[in-house]
Amino acid sequence: MKSKKMAVTLVSGLLLVLLYGIIFSFSAQNGEASTEISMGVSDSLVNVLDFLTFGKMDTDMLSELALVIEHPIRKTAHFLEYALMGILIYSTLYYPITNSKVKFWVSLLWLILSAGADELHQYFVPGRWGSVKDVLLDTCGGLVGILICRFLYKKVSSKLSKS
């Protein structure tokens, strides 16, 4: 069991480092490049919607809709990437910290510091800025990830202890 916990910690830690690299690369993009990516995602989603409605939307309506959903798409991406980060942080602490309350609080603090560091990084990128709202949004996403992970670990450990 100890080796499985160590494996979970190691794999989660490696995936966490990879996620940090991805987030850093997104945050390093200037404002124009970042908006271009989220508009690309928004355009793709609008095109899927147009396909599902059998092309009944005109080009102006599609463009306007893409503009309207770009901001929520961007914020949803923030939330989801930090939910994943919360899962990976909690899992990285799976072996070294056995007390679940301590693991929860250490994970949450780690997450808040990560979100703050990301926003501080963006502050120095041309066309970007740091936002306390984004730190809060990222933290909420990460908290959801931590809670999901904590719930699943409790479920698995209770099933293992019954068998």
- What does the largest sheet look like? none
Q: If helices are DSSP runs of H or I spanning 4 or more residues, what is the number of helices? A: 5
Anisotropy-based shape:
globular
End-to-end span in angstroms? 14 Å
| Category by helix and strand content | mainly alpha
- Rounded Rg: 19 Å
Low-pLDDT stretches are none
The SSE string, one letter per element, is HHHHH
Strand percentage: under 5%
Average predicted local confidence, pLDDT: 93
User: What's the total number of strands?
Assistant: 0
Helix content: over 70%
Structural summary, described in words:
The protein starts with a helix and ends with a helix. The longest helix has 34 residues. The mean pLDDT is 93. Helix 3 crosses helix 5. The chain is mostly helical and 163 residues long. 84% of the residues lie in helices and 0% in strands. It is globular, with a radius of gyration of 19 Å.
